[in-house]
Amino acid sequence: MLVLFITMLLLIYKGRCFNVLENKAWEGFDGRLWKEECNVRDFIQKNYHPYDGDEKFLQGPTEATNKLWGKVQEYQKAEREHGGVLKEETEVVSSITAYGPGYIDPKMKDLEKVVGLQTDEPLKRAFMPYGGIKMAE
Questions:
Q1: Share of the chain above pLDDT 70, in %
Q2: What are phi and psi of 74, to 5 degrees?
Q3: Looking at residues 7-18, what average pLDDT do you find?
Q4: CB 94, CB 128: distance < 8 Å
Q5: What is the value of pTM for the model shown?
Q6: CB 29 within 8 A of CB 43
Q7: Cα distance between residue 84 and residue 110, in whole Å
Q8: What is the DSSP string of the chain?
C-alpha cells in the first residue's frame, strides 16, 4: 500500500498531474480515471492487491546499506553523548524544496540510492514553526 501511495505522490506534484500517458513508468497499472485526472482513489482501487504470503521474499540489507547505517549510528551516538540535538536550523523554514540533495556522508554518496535529508546535514533538526511561518513572525 505504501508503494502505491508513493507512486501517486509522484504523479501529483504541486497540484498538477503529470501526463501518465507519455510516461512508460506507469505501464502495467490498471484503471482509466487516474490517467485522465488526479484521482488517487481510482488508482488504489484498480491496483491494490493484498499479499497473503510470508516474508520469504524479503532480502537482507546490502553492503551499501550496512555502511550507510553504520554512519547513521555514529551520528546517533554523537548526539546521545552531546546530551541532545547536535544542531538546529534557525534560518531556513523547512519545506519540500528548502534544501538541495543531502547525503548521510558526502564521501559515501555513491552508495546512496535515494538522496535528500530533511535538512542539509545529518540529524540537523529542521525549523518547522507550529502554525506556519506567518504565526512565527
A1: 81
A2: -60, -45
A3: 53
A4: yes
A5: 0.59
A6: yes
A7: 30
A8: -HHHHHHHHHHEETTEE--GGG-GGGTT---SHHHHS--HHHHHHHH-----S-GGG-----HHHHHHHHHHHHHHHHHHHHTS-SEEEEEEEP-TTSS----S-GGGGGG-SS---SSSSTTEEEE--TT-HHHH-
* Rounded-to-integer distance, Cα 93 and Cα 88, Å: 11
Predicted local confidence at residue 14, as pLDDT: 47
> Whose CA is closest to 17, among 51, 42, 45, 54?
42
What is the C-alpha separation between 26 and 80, in angstroms, rounded?
44
Distance CA 8, CA 5 (A): 5
Q: So what's the pLDDT on residue 92?
A: 87
The C-alpha atoms of residue 30 and residue 42 are separated, in whole angstroms, by 9
98, 92, 87: which is closest to 122 by C-alpha? 87
Residue type, 86: L
